[in-house]
Amino acid sequence: MKKEYVFINEVGPRDGLQNQDVNLSEDKRLGLIHSLEAANIPGIEVASFVSSKVVPQMQGAKEIVKNLKPSNCEYSVLIPNIQGYKDAIEAGCKIISVVPAATEEMNKKNINMSLKEALDIASEIINLGKQDNIITRAYIAVAWVCPYEGRVDESVILKIADQLIEAGADELILADTIGAANPASVKSLVSKVVDRYPVQISAHFHDTRAMALANVWSSLEVGVKKFDSCIGGLGGCPFAPGASGNLATEDIVHMLHQANYETGINTNALLSAVEYASNALGNKIGGRMTPWLNQQSL
């Protein structure tokens, strides 16, 4: 029987690095990206076109994109505003992501916009992307729980998703930004979104309460076959109190392989990428399964 394929989108070079105390050079970030590609990861979020004054870890995004190797890997970037879009297009980006949050307060803290402003800007960027033949991805941050406003009602998420899909988004990603979702709440919201929209639906989980893998499994059960993850469980949002690291790529890949899913990712090469990141950051990183996986590779 043919194994079902699950697409892993690695967000380490952007989401993983944006909250680190160490600002890696462009060369080291490129080295990390290429080490991830060597593990046969099919998608990598490589940078964010945000102001370096706000997020200094992401400075040099243009240079990162311009120096990527030709590849079948889906390189994507995060776009916060129209200027960021213009810069990304100039750099040669082919896949862009917008990330409006689901609540007023999170948008104010994250991008200094109201919810309406954030959605209008995201929709405008998506429209521009369609005109320029760019693949557009739309995240909805804090899709389950906001650190400032608490639980987010599903009807709010569906209304936001309606606007983003109407604008022309090619993909919709539900993000558990502070890791407060649980398998039941994930299954409830994700099943509604999968049934409602005829586009790629993906999920992005943080592991704050040790439920990220369980949340992945709930999503799989209702038809999601694409997930964000981050080597070593790096990550966290500088504007979202309580947001710990992302779901570790090593953890989700190993779970999927054990459950007879296919990812195409080479686990040993993935562990080498984790080691590269550890050395670059000067800090030993790893997911929950990393120590065990390292023992098996000896």
Short key terms for the protein model shown above:
single chain, two-stranded antiparallel sheet, alpha/beta, 12 helices, 298 residues, 8-stranded parallel beta barrel, TIM Barrel
Largest sheet: 8 strands, parallel, barrel
Strands ordered across the widest β-sheet: 1-2-3-4-5-8-9-10
Q: Please compute the radius of gyration using only Cα atoms.
A: 18 Å
Fraction of residues in helices? Answer: 40-55%
- The amount of beta strand, in percent, is 15-25%
Question: What's the CATH H-level superfamily name?
Answer: Aldolase class I
Structural class: alpha/beta
Low-confidence stretches: none
Report the average pLDDT across residues.
94
What's the order of the H and E elements?
A: EHHEHEHEHHEEEHEHEHEHHH
Number of strands: 10
Main CATH class = Alpha Beta
The tally of domains stands at: 1
Characterization of the model:
This protein is 43% helix and 15% strand. It is of the alpha/beta class. The strands form 2 sheets. Strands 1-2-3-4-5-8-9-10 form an 8-stranded parallel beta barrel, surrounded by 7 helices. Helix 9 links the parallel strand 9 and strand 10. Helix 2 (26-38) packs antiparallel against helix 11, helix 6 packs parallel to helix 7 (154-167) and helix 8 runs parallel beside helix 9. The longest helix is centred in the middle third of the chain and has 17 residues, at 115-131.
